[in-house]
Write a structure and sequence with these properties.
Blueprint (H helix, E strand, L loop, with lengths): L1 H6 L3 E2 L1 H8 L3 H10 L6 E4 L2 E5 H18 L1
Antiparallel strand pairs: 1-3, 2-3
Length: 70
């Protein structure tokens, strides 16, 4: 599925990323600065978006980490 996503990427906006991850905007940008969250793609002068497959991979990694601790 990731291969398909890379060929036909879907860009999602900040509000959808916040909804999927549960992270507020400030936390997302703090994690981006630390390299702990996918960086956004500039779309215009005042618009950015995230690659859906990168956000999905980040979420899958967080879930895997949580399950391995249990």
């Amino acid at each position: 599925m990731a291969a398909i996503a890379e060929v036909h990427p879907r860009i999602i906006k900040r509000r959808e990323v916040e909804g999927r991850t549960g992270l507020p905007r400030s936390t997302m940008y703090d994690r981006i600065k630390r390299g702990d969250f996918p960086a956004p793609i500039p779309l215009g002068a005042r618009s950015v978006g995230w690659l859906e497959h990168e956000v999905d991979a980040w979420l899958a990694d967080r879930i895997a980490q949580a399950r391995n601790r249990a």
